Amino acid sequence: MLARLQQLTTIGLVALAFAWAWHHAHQGRWAMAVTGALVLLCLHAIVLAFEFVLVAWVNRRDAAPRASVAQLVAAWWGEVTTSTIVFCWRQPFRSRVHPDRPAGRRRGVVLVHGFVCNRGLWNPWLERLHALGVPVVAVNLEPVFGSIDAYARIVDDAVAALERGTGMAPVLVGHSMGGLAIRAWLDRHAADARAHHVVTIGSPHQGTSLARIALAMNARQMRRDGDWLRALAARETPQRRRRFTCFYGHCDNIVLPASTATLPDADNRHLAGVAHVAMAYDDRVLADVMRLLGVADAADVSASRSGDADAWSSRGADDAAR
Questions:
Q1: How far apart are CA 228 and CA 222, in angstroms?
Q2: Of the residues 113, 132, 158, 226, which has the maximum number of CB atoms within 10 A of its CB?
Q3: Distance (Å, rounded) from C-alpha 309 to C-alpha 268?
Q4: How many CB atoms sit inside 10 A of residue 150's CB?
């Protein structure tokens, strides 16, 4: 469902920009043709620029280290390039290019995406994990705008597949809302013993200020000091939270303020100068997950031997994103 929606959005925006340019160029208004088309194609970058102004404002009193102007600008540009690849290519057109492989002789990993995303977000991870022979399942959280509680079943199915295929409890990795879906699964199924470890990346564990304007059910559940998050936290124990490593950053343009992506009692790690989507592709995150999986020298293994455009080591624009 989401892939088709993002296909229509991507194709529609490009068609609209082309139609605008053709219409005005046909009438000899070349400046209007070029300017209008560029504005349409760069609208995403303009919206992100406003978000990073908000980041600087909201985080000015946060406990996280203060981001410099240079870091914010670099993170903005990185997010422009990375999010364009994710939302206009990987998720709409390549979400099924790398299949799940739940069986193997080593510990596996469950990959859980965030809000308005699908498993295509994880394509570079899937490419790398397949090359290393790591069993992996990447879920699609549906319905897209449903309750986070409903995602517990999807996560449970993925964990069960890896348990059957490997005989071991997997590592779970959640980006953004995906970290909350993992917490909901642990809560609903009392599944502490079934998770070797949990790594979250930019997950709004304590909510995000942006959710104040949210309309979707799952987005409303991510409001700061909201009933859903308070109730979930009240049912958790320090022992459960110690199973978490939480990556957060002062240039996160979605989880505001930055420290709301941390959990009490967890191993909270700050990523400097990296924006929300780009955090999912930070080498420090990948290295930590590989360590948890017991994969040696993972950083030296190229997943791009076939030249796939999604491969981690041939990131191109993804490298620019950092």
A1: 8
A2: 113
A3: 32
A4: 16
42, exposed or middle or buried, with CB in 10 Å at 0-12, 13-18, 19+? middle
Place of tokens 């990523």: 271
**What would the DSSP string read from start to end of 143-202?**
STTS-GGGHHHHHHHHHHHHHHHHSSPPEEEEETHHHHHHHHHHHHHT-GGG-SEEEEES
Q: What is the DSSP letter of 90?
A: I
Question: At 309, is the pLDDT very low, low, confident or very high (cuts 50, 70, 90)?
Answer: very low
Give 254's DSSP letter. S
Number of Cβ atoms within 10 Å of the Cβ of 141: 24
What would the mean pLDDT of 278-307 be, rounded to a whole number?
76
Tell me: pLDDT of 283 over 70.
yes
Cis peptide before 238 (omega within 30 of 0): no
Answer for the pair 140, 96: CB distance below 8 angstroms, yes or no.
Answer: no
Residue identified by tokens 């100068």 is 273
Integer-rounded Cα radius of gyration of the chain: 20
User: How much is the pTM?
Assistant: 0.91
pLDDT for the residue 1 = 80
The pLDDT value given to residue 56: 97
